[in-house]
Amino acid sequence: MKPRAEASAPSPEAALFLGEFTNYLSVERGLSRHTVEAYETDLRKFLRFLAGKGRVELSAVRRDDIMDFLLREKKRGLKARSLSRGLVAVRMFFRFLTMEGYLREDITEVLESPHLWQELPKVLSPAEVESLLTQPFPDDRYGHRDRAMLETLYATGLRASELVTLTVDHVNLDSGFIRCLGKGSKERIVPVGAAARQALETYLERSRPLFLRGGEDSGVLFLGRGGKGLSRARLWGIVKSWVSRAGIRKEVSPHTLRHSFATHLLGRGADLRSIQEMLGHSNISTTQVYTHVDRERLKEVHRRFHPRG
């Protein structure tokens, strides 16, 4: 059986409706030829995508089909303005079909702009995180510090700027929480897991005093040479170094561990509101990007392991 081609032609029904729609835009709406041609180009691409998925009848199209189409176009490098125009074209098309009685309901009516053109966060797999955090660290002040920083980044989802400005007073290992001052000076309390607590205890007891060497203590938690706090650039370099030593070939930054923290929590059943609170997002729509990341992971698992994936 011949596989469906990605460049499948739109169904005769869809092609007919598209012709009526472009005529409506020109004659009744009075849009310019350039605008009509742009919308028609976007819709032809969308209709070919639907045909490739086997959506012969437009009444069978679902909201997820539209989101999948936008995701694909984003991965192909389409810019935000073009993606936005494509979404407008699809909305206008389905509104027209409903208005003319070709469809019973407009599935785009409650479709919020999903901001799919934003770059989806790059994350490490749980196995990659495990290899990063369980590799042998030197039994010295730098090894203890670096392990504690990496464990804390993954355990709490802190931003790089939040980690390097943590003070000793912000850490309460007895209760297992870190007090973090985030964007807009908003304070939040984030739990710390057992592995990170142990790494922090080792660093605080055995290594942090060695960075001070009797000098003035600023109270900053993670210190570098001369007992001074670390810059974000230095933290990035430390993370990159340990990622390379762990044999991970991805481009990884401190923010990658933040994204991995959120994605792995979501994948294990954590609710979005709790993740929002721990990340310090003021709006849950910012946190919802991780639902797209997890959906892509599920699709990849299905593709790799399903017999007919």
Describe what is shown at a glance.
The protein is mainly α and 309 residues long.
List the helices and strands and how they pair.
Elements: H1 12-27, H2 33-52, H3 63-75, H4 80-99, H5 126-133, H6 141-156, H7 160-164, E1 171-172, E2 177-181, E3 187-191, H8 194-212, H9 232-245, H10 254-267, H11 272-279, H12 284-287, H13 289-305
Antiparallel strand pairs: 1-2, 2-3
Helix pairs in contact: 1-2, 2-4, 3-4, 6-8, 6-10, 10-13
Description:
The protein is mainly α. The chain has helices spanning 12-27, 33-52, 63-75, 80-99, 126-133, 141-156, 160-164, 194-212, 232-245, 254-267, 272-279, 284-287, 289-305, and strands at residues 171-172, 177-181, 187-191. Strand 2 and strand 3 (187-191) form a beta hairpin. It contains 13 helices and three strands, in the order H-H-H-H-H-H-H-E-E-E-H-H-H-H-H-H. Residues 1-6 have low confidence and may be disordered. The longest helix has 20 residues, at 33-52. Helix 2 packs across helix 4 (80-99), helix 6 (141-156) crosses helix 10 (254-267) and helix 10 (254-267) packs across helix 13. The chain has a three-stranded antiparallel beta sheet with strand order 1-2-3. It folds into two domains: 12-99, DNA polymerase, domain 1 (Orthogonal Bundle); 126-305, Intergrase catalytic core (hpI Integrase, Chain A). The two termini are 16 Å apart.
Key descriptive features of the protein:
hpI Integrase, Chain A; 3-stranded antiparallel sheet; 309 residues; disordered N terminus; 4% strand; mainly alpha
